[in-house]
Amino acid sequence: MDRDEENYYGKHGEPRKFDPKFRGPIHNRHCTDIICCVIFIVVILGYIALGVVAWVHGDPRKVIYPTDSYGQFCGQKNTLNKNKTILFYFNILKCASPVVLINLQCPTTQLCVSKCPDRFATYIDVQASYRYRPDQWNYFRQFCKPGFNNPRKSVAQVLRDEDCPSMIIPSRPFLKRCFPDFSTKNGVLTVANQTTFKDGRGKRRNVTDLREAANGINNVLDARSVGMKIFEDYAISWYWILIGLFIAMMLSLLFLVLLRFTAGVLFWIFIFGVIGIIGYGIWHCYWEYDHLKGIPGSDLTVYDIGFQTDFKVYLQLRQTWLAFMIILCGVEVIIILMLIFLRSRIRIAIALLKEGSRAIGYIMSTLFYPIVTFLLIAICISYWAVTAVFLATSGEPVYKVMANQTLCKYANLTCDPETFNTTNVTKLCPGAQCTFAFYGGESLYHKYIFIFQLANAFVFLWLVNFAIALGQCTLAGAFASYYWAYRKPADIPLWPLFSSFGRAIRYHTGSLAFGALILAIVQLIRVILEYLDHKLKGTQNSFTRFLLCCLKCCFWCLEKFLKFINRNAYIMIAIYGKNFCTSAKEAFFLLMRNVVRVAVLDKVTDFLLFLGKILVAGGVGVLAFFFFTQRIPVFAQEVPMLNYYWVPLLTVIIGSYLVAHGFFSVYAMCVDTLFLCFCEDLERNDGSTAKPYFMSASLHRILGKKKLSPKKA
């Protein structure tokens, strides 16, 4: 008994169980994995509760708006800062870079102002001239602490108490913060066309002292300028981008339709092309080997010349070309032998690809189901992102002692701004202040914010995997309805996609949630490993890095394996309506009994779909390139004037690839479903009148078998 006959019958020749009433996806179902379904619903309700709690305690303004040293938002309505929308730093020299300014707290007083300084000035100069030039004092005073109006106070005391900045320099607002107005003049860094400035402490300093901050700020500002130009390009070219994506959609549909007629041709052209290229390589290696005959030094071995950094040296040896020729000959022989021994399975794989194209032609609505999956995932991402932001901004203002003296023992300790002036800190550390540091808290809720963030990430992964699982199970049910229709398309049920979606939601939410849960756990572990790897990247412990690398590799492989098992388990769930574990087990053993067919079908499908994605993205990309570069005379007048033509071009190429991927993912699910149904058909039926095949006539012809009757023991 050969392997195909063994698939028809059991390993010992007995016929497999046959259900004469089986006609594809079972409609009389019962709920599966109910416990997991209940847990899943409870988790969703808890996730909603977590979002509500985060929304009650959080305040996204802490991320959007800058906060001054008193913990007040700049530009907040109904406060003294309602018209002061920009944050001003007393001494920006203490801030290392704009990244520190934005994400951390700069160790200097920060005030909300209505506008940034537009001139150079120092407190020393302004104090000396305030009697006869009060306008300068009035201008400078708006950058001092609110209510300060005592120009007679000594400079030392003012700088010690940080009542006013020691200097102001021309600045411009960016990200609602005042940054020095840096520019270059003849290659020299300047601020308002000046290369030096007074620091307000009796010294004249060079603008290059701000180079570290200037480099970061200029890069950010340049990025902002580029960003504005990119936005402008999108604003005037979005119409043509949508046209390009529509063309990609039509090409994807056309490719799927043509696969019914060209799948075999494309595959064999590629295979014979590879054989021909390898054959040419063998001939070229022989020609080089024969051409080097008699040339001095060409008969040396690789061992004789040792290791050489110049690879060309090895190409002067006959032994090198002989080795290349032997390797290519081995590869050629292996490919030819595989084609000889796997030709029937390759024909079955191509027939299944054609059958998949035919199935999609009958159930065209399946091509648009990825939009549903996309919307569900978009909702999950939005909810996760909003909840994460509210959790991150759930803290209360935390104030810390900021002292000018480096030896102050109270520096960086928490403090209360309302009672700070009554403590001994100001006496022991003259000039110390109680300023806003960050948002945090000591309550039970604030202590577990990190745990809540982990829970937020975990449930997010669970929901995303559930949305994907729901899509796979829905599509599998629809395509299984096609395969198990005895007379195609007459026996295909009405609205197979919607019926399959309803069955998946009504009966198998628990099973889909179970599979998604297993995958989410593995993905969360991978996220934690990546976090640990990022934190330990600077360590010199080689064993730790090696262990993390091994763990990351193992869990990556485990995730890939689980995705493969889950995908096929969802197909079995869609067909038979059993629980997740039973479906996964039956799918696994069914695939193992047809492991060679699985490997061949997987590779053939991957190749053809990858070829389709490249053809769609490449074809639309070439068309977009000629259009946006005005190389199509007919449309030359219609092309919008762009800052960067590559902006819409890359958008069209990437978008076309994603559109093709969305359509082809449906096709891949269709082929996988038809393959499992095909294997089940072989094991359930023998082609007789009592147990007829449900496969198409083309698949039946490829099997090359007549009607089989059960063998006698």
TrEMBL record:
Q: What is its main location?
A: membrane
Write out the annotated subcellular location: Cell membrane
UniProt KW keywords? Antiport, Cell membrane, Glycoprotein, Membrane, Transmembrane, Transmembrane helix, Transport
Source domain of life is Eukaryota
Q: Which reaction does it catalyse?
A: choline(out) + n H(+)(in) = choline(in) + n H(+)(out)
Q: Which GO terms describe its cellular component?
A: plasma membrane
Tell me one Pfam family matched here.
Choline_transpo
Any GO MF annotation of the entry: antiporter activity
Q: Where are the transmembrane segments?
A: 31-56, 238-258, 265-283, 321-342, 362-386, 459-486, 507-529, 607-628, 649-669
Its membrane topology is listed as: Multi-pass membrane protein
Reported function: Choline transporter.
Instruction: Report the family membership.
Output: Belongs to the CTL (choline transporter-like) family.
Name under which the protein is recorded:
Choline transporter-like protein
Organism listed in the record: Chaetorhynchus papuensis
State which gene encodes it: Slc44a5
